[in-house]
Specification:
Distance between the termini: 37 Å
Largest sheet: 4 strands, antiparallel
Structural class: alpha+beta
Number of helices: 9
Radius of gyration: 18 Å
Strand content: 15-25%
Order of helices and strands: HHEEEEEEHEEHHHHHH
CATH class of the domain at 2-121: Mainly Beta
Number of strands: 8
Low-confidence stretches: none
Helix content: 40-55%
Strand order of the largest sheet: 1-8-3-6
CATH superfamily of the domain at 2-121: Jelly Rolls
Shape: globular
CATH topology of the domain at 2-121: Jelly Rolls
Length: 194
């Protein structure tokens, strides 16, 4: 427990936004949560009322297409936050599903507590602004990647940034994330030198 909170403290300290008091008041508001493999953090249609900091494990975000096909559009790894962001902000039902791909350990905080921190401390207000900006940039990058970069380079990018986790992601989810078939992904994997 102590080491998990130390990891979270170190994460917040790296931003250089928070006073010691702002971190000290926030850390106890997080609680531990475990997800089994294939368990949802948030299901489609459900309101997202908490955000989780991943300590171990891997999650994916997906939605159902008009034909009922699962479309994976995002992976989350240790040291990152996971939430159905638009639902978290608006309080409406989620359009996506956030699912653990492996056994996943998190520290979670409620939206109520996040809002209280933002009301009380400017550091937390700045942190939420930066988080919103990062979400926008990530979404824009994802759109541009799908439209401008071929699948081979998108796969190579995923391998370069998260090689230790990619091996745990089922191929059908990677193919869906890349916007290609599993057969096409198999060809790409054979062509790459690593």
């Amino acid at each position: 427990m102590t080491s998990n909170r130390t990891i979270l403290r170190d994460y917040f300290e790296r931003f250089g936004l928070f006073t010691e008091e702002e971190i000290r008041e926030a850390i106890p508001l997080f609680r531990e949560k475990s997800l089994k493999k294939s368990e949802d953090f948030v299901s489609e249609g459900e309101r997202c009322t908490e955000v989780g900091f991943i300590l171990s494990g891997t999650c994916r975000s997906f939605y159902l297409s008009a034909t009922g096909e699962e479309i994976t559009y995002c992976f989350r790894f240790p040291g990152e936050f996971v939430a159905a962001y638009s639902s978290f902000i608006t309080g409406q039902g989620s359009l996506e599903c956030m699912q653990a791909l492996t056994k996943t350990e998190l520290l979670v905080i409620s939206k109520t507590d996040v809002d209280l921190l933002a009301d009380k401390f400017t550091g937390w207000l700045k942190f939420l602004k930066i988080t919103a900006e990062q979400q926008y940039i990530e979404l824009e990058k994802r759109i541009f990647q799908l439209q401008k970069v071929n699948a081979r380079l998108r796969y190579k990018d995923l391998l370069e940034h998260h090689p230790e986790y990619v091996q745990y992601i089922p191929l059908q989810h990677i193919a869906s994330y890349l916007g290609i078939t599993q057969r096409h992904l198999s060809r790409i994997r054979k062509e790459l030198p690593f």
